[in-house]
Design the sequence.
């Protein structure tokens, strides 16, 4: 009987939707669609100056993000992006996993529990995400990486928002800027990532990661008018083995850590984790280190080699589980080989709250020499500082 208030939607049917949780669900769906559509092209770009896994990495990563979002149903854009970032870091066995993962997680954290950020707020949060990627990977604009597409896209979005441009226009600007940035990597020499191994020979080829940033931006624009994403009813995706959920990783890691005593004392030894792209490499380096110890009682040592499905890559899930297995309460030393292994370890160390045991540190040393030095130092009871110092020594050992 009381007068019904007129809803804004009744009078403004054609306005852009809010950047709410439903919008970001559509963004994930659109990203999945576009990444699958362009997977072959991304892989081709990566094959010329990298290792040809970029398309597959993104298809796997964003597929896992879609499953995680459907299962956990994050309630805010911030929570959704944070979940997306964590899932990417955990499921992509290449550099792009921790890089895109860190960007999205940071963006989500900055959005906090806002129900629907403004375009300006989204631009600012993405700016923080961009800075976190640069901090993690060390790339500047002009190094021919994904930063060359992300930086101009974020700037364009923020500028358009500041000028009060409508949402669709602001996103159009961001897409064009990302596209132009990705195109321009063709004329640049790669200075970060695998492509940098080619030096000047990388000139003349576009960077794969910059192209995927352009796709992610395109998905942001497509999500404005895309149909609502229907989430599977109830059914938790329990049968999905590849997706590690950090919140329950403690119990998930329990079988691997079964040999650990429940109560941790401060009298233990420093744990050692060898992180390699290859399970075989990690295991054989561990075996050689053990053999060189002679009769010394070996330190707690675990390997995190390759991806959970046995492929070549790095897995945050395996690293976390391994670190917990070897934790005796006095610190854990993580020694990794290169590229995405380093990035994944650094991004795990930067997570708040951390899933790694207290006192976990990254070792800066060559893989084999470092492994021998740290396993010996830990075995003889050296503390975490002594273990890291031994590794530093191994780094300075010259062969010529
Ligand atoms: P990988 O290089 O481990 O095979 P991907 O092929 O999935 O991983 O991703 C490669 C992309 O990651 C590159 O095209 C580049 O855009 C980006 N990338 C690699 N290293 C860095 C870095 N240090 N900083 C920024 N971006 C990087
Ligand atoms: Mg690659």
Sequence:
């Amino acid at each position: 009987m009381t007068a019904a208030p007129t809803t804004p939607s009744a009078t403004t049917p054609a306005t852009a939707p809010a950047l709410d949780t439903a919008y970001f669900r559509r963004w994930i769906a659109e990203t999945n669609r576009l990444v699958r559509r362009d997977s072959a092209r991304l892989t081709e770009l990566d094959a010329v100056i990298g290792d040809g896994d970029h398309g597959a990495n993104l298809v796997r990563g964003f597929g896992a993000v879609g499953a995680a979002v459907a299962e956990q149903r994050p309630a805010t854009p911030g929570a959704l992006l944070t979940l997306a970032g964590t899932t990417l870091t955990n499921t992509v066995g290449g550099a792009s996993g921790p890089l895109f993962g860190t960007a999205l997680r940071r963006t989500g954290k900055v959005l906090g529990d806002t129900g629907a950020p403004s375009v300006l707020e989204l631009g600012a949060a993405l700016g923080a995400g961009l800075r976190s990627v640069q901090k993690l990977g060390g790339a500047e604009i002009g190094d021919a990486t994904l930063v060359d597409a992300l930086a101009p896209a974020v700037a364009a979005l923020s500028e358009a928002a500041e000028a009060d441009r409508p949402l669709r226009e602001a996103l159009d600007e961001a897409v064009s800027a990302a596209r132009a940035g990705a195109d321009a990597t063709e004329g640049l020499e790669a200075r970060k990532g695998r492509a940098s191994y080619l030096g000047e020979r990388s000139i003349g080829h576009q960077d794969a990661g910059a192209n995927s940033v352009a796709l992610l931006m395109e998905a942001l624009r497509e999500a404005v008018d895309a149909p609502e994403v229907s989430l599977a009813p109830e059914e938790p995706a329990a049968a999905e083995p590849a997706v590690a959920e950090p919140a329950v990783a403690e119990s998930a890691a329990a079988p691997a850590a079964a040999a650990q005593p429940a109560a941790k004392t401060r009298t233990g030894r420093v744990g050692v984790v060898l992180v390699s792209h290859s399970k075989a490499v990690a295991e054989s380096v561990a075996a050689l280190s053990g053999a060189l110890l002679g009769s010394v009682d070996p330190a707690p040592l675990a390997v995190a080699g390759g991806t959970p499905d046995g492929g070549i890559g790095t897995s945050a899930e395996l690293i976390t589980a391994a670190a917990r297995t070897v934790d005796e309460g006095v610190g854990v030393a993580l020694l990794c080989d290169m590229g995405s292994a380093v990035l994944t370890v650094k991004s795990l160390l930067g997570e708040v709250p951390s899933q790694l045991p207290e006192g976990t540190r990254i070792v800066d040393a060559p893989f084999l020499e470092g492994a021998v030095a740290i396993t010996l130092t830990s075995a003889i009871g050296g503390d975490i500082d002594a273990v890291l110092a031994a590794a530093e020594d191994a780094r300075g050992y010259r062969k010529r």
Observations:
- Residues 46, 50-51, 53-54, 57, 94-96, 99, 137-139, 145-147, 192-194, 207-210, 339-340 surround adenosine-5'-diphosphate (ligand 1) (CB under 6 Å).
- The first strand starts at residue 271 and ends at 276.
- The domain at 242-396 is CATH 3.40.50.510 (Rossmann fold).
